[in-house]
Amino acid sequence: MKFFGLAILFILVLISADYLAAKYIVSIGFGYQAPAGVWCIGGILAIRDWVQDVRGLRWSMLLVAIASIISLIISVYTGWAGLRNIAIGSFVAFLFSETADAVIYTPLRQKHRYSGIVLSVMGGAIIDSMIFLWIAFRSFDFLPGQIIGKWEMIPVALILVFFRRNIFVILPFQNKQYAQ
């Protein structure tokens, strides 16, 4: 049940990221701007780590592929991505960034969970930003804003992991194996 809830959240956040990226440019601070889906992608990189902790690497990567395809179909079908390149850029960037996130997080997760999350989100954010911006806009004008915006989600991810590990494990219905 926990996996199903996380999977739905994962897919909904990805769809939201595509919609927001196609519709709005926002100020993310420090004088930079980025497509509005930036915060969603920063968060979803951390959610993928959580999915891996709950179900394992294979399931998390299967979910990445399924979510990517669903989001691409919805973006193209609804016309959210007025430029087809935004939908395709999001699809390709997401697959590569989530793979990079997994490659970084997997060896670190047992002994250095918090640094694993920080490093995997940082690496995934850079890869996602570069690929998305190049395919979608053929420009890196928003690159600093994209990276900073995604990195702004790192403290949120760390807080969620802290609460998941230190508070939720006391609930009687919680499977302690997955809470770690």
* Strand segment tally: 2
- State the secondary-structure class: mainly alpha
The biggest beta sheet is recorded as: 2 strands, antiparallel
Oligomer: single chain
Strand coverage percent = 5-15%
Describe the strand arrangement of the main beta sheet, using strand numbers: 1-2
Number of helices: 8
Number of domains: 1
CATH fold group: Arp2/3 complex 21 kDa subunit ARPC3
The radius of gyration is 16 Å
Question: Based on the structure given, which CATH architecture is correct?
Answer: Orthogonal Bundle
* CATH class placement: Mainly Alpha
What is the string of helix and strand elements?
A: HEEHHHHHHH
Secondary structure layout:
Layout lengths: L1 H22 L1 E5 L2 E4 L2 H18 L1 H22 L5 H25 L4 H25 L5 H9 L2 H13 L9 H4 L1
Antiparallel strand pairs: 1-2
Helix pairs in contact: 1-2, 1-3, 2-3, 2-4, 2-5, 2-6, 2-7, 3-4, 4-5, 5-6, 5-7
Question: Brief overview, please?
Answer:
The chain is mainly α and 180 residues long. The chain has eight helices and two strands, in the order H-E-E-H-H-H-H-H-H-H.
Explain what the structure shows.
With 180 residues, this protein is mostly helical. The protein has a single domain (2-26, 36-170), classed as Arp2/3 complex 21 kDa subunit ARPC3. Helices cover 77% and strands 5% of the residues. The protein is built from eight helices and two strands. The protein has helices at 2-23, 38-55, 57-78, 84-108, 113-137, 143-151, 154-166, 176-179; strands at residues 25-29, 32-35. Helix 4 packs antiparallel against helix 5 (113-137), helix 5 (113-137) runs antiparallel to helix 6 (143-151) and helix 5 (113-137) packs antiparallel against helix 7 (154-166). Residues 169-176 have low confidence and may be disordered.
